Amino acid sequence: MVCLCVSVVVCVCCSVCLAGGSGQCSVNGMFLFDRAMWSPQPCSVCQCQRGTVSCHPVPCGGRHSTKKPSSNAEKKEGIPKQKKSLQRTSEEGGAGRQKKEERHVTPVKVVAVVKSMATQNKKQEVAVKKQEVAVKKQKVSVKKQEMVVKTKVRKTEVPVAKRRDLKINKDSLPYLPYDDDDHDDHDHSEHDDIDDDDDYIIRATGKPTMRLAPMGRPVTMATGRLATTTTRRPMVRGPGRAVVTFPRRHSIMESLPAGCLLSESLIACGSTGMVHIPILSDQGVKTLYLADNKINKIPPRALAGLPNLEWLDLSKNKLDDSSISPDLFQNLTQLRRLNLDGNNLTKVPSILPPSLVELKINDNKILGLTPSSFKGLSKLLTLELEDNHFHDGNVSPLTFRPLKKLIYLRLEDNKFRAIPSGLPVTLQALHLSHNRIEEVHEGILNKTVNLRFLDLSHNRIREDRIAPRAWIHLLKLESLDLSHNKLVHVPSFLPVGLQQLHLHHNQIERIPGYVFGHIKPGLDLLHLSHNRLANDGIDDVSFLGLYNSLTELLLDHNQLRSIPRGLLKLKSLQLLRLNHNVIRYVPLNSLCDMRQSDDSPLVSVHLEYNLIDRRLIPPTALSCIKTYHSIILRPQSYEEDYHHEDY
Question: SS3 for 180?
Answer without folding.
Answer: coil
